Amino acid sequence: MAVLPILQYPNPRLKILATKVEHFCCEFQDIVNDMFDTLYNEQQCAGLAATQLDILNPPHVTVIDFSEEKNQPLCLVNAEITAREGETYTEEGCMSITGKDNAILRAKVRRAEKITVSAQDRYGDPIQFTTDGFMAKCIQHELDHLAGILFIDHLSPLKRGFLLKSFLDKQKSTSKMH
Ligand code: ZN
Questions:
Q1: Which pLDDT tens digits describe the chain residue by residue (178 residues)?
Q2: Taking Cα atoms as reference points, which of 8, 60, 10 lies closest to residue 35?
Q3: Under a CB-based contact definition with an 8 Å cutoff, are residues 111 and 136 in contact?
Q4: How far apart are alpha carbons 28 and 11 in whole angstroms?
Q5: Distance of CA 95 from the midpoint of ligand 1 (Å)
Q6: How far apart are CA 13 and CA 2, in angstroms?
Q7: Rounded distance from Cα 134 to ligand 1 centre (Å)
Q8: Rg of the Cα trace of the chain?
Q9: Does pTM surpass 0.90?
């Protein structure tokens, strides 16, 4: 069991592309276990992508669980979105863009409302499903990570710059108060 460090923006490693998983044996299972340990160690965390963590050559895997009891683990390997429907514009945050006292930068992002996902489970068995709501948003956010994309990359450069600056300034002033 190991809780891994979550890489923080602007760490350039957040831009690394995940590698397709071909072997589902021991070493890979250890990584998936560590990812779930890391997910469950963070209170506000709904999902994590391997590219967010301190893993060499991060594999194309994401772990998700936003259930109250933390007992509905979903692991998607080599996942692809094969169909998109509708549009939502709701707030997101990211465990890789956080500040002091668990502050999380939040911003509204446009996503598909409903998606169909084709993937493999942690043992390599194929899975396919359609989902919407928070789960659809979460999967789109995590699959972006595996392609080196952060949710703030969906904002205009002007808005992104403004948001980041005010978030980071706030962190500085908070730290002065303590
Ligand atoms: Zn994120």
A1: 799 999 999 999 999 999 999 999 999 999 999 999 999 999 889 999 999 999 999 999 999 999 999 999 999 999 999 999 999 999 999 999 998 887 999 999 999 999 999 999 999 999 999 999 999 999 999 999 999 999 999 999 999 999 999 898 887 776 555 5
A2: 60
A3: yes
A4: 24
A5: 5
A6: 20
A7: 14
A8: 16
A9: yes
Classify burial at 56, counting beta carbons within 10 Å of its beta carbon; exposed 0-12, middle 13-18, buried 19 or more: exposed
CA of residue 22 to ligand 1 center, whole Å: 24
Residues belonging to the chain: 178
Active site (annotated) includes residue 142 = yes
- Tell me whether strands 107-111 and 88-92 are parallel, antiparallel or unpaired: antiparallel
Distance CA 81, CA 94 (A): 20
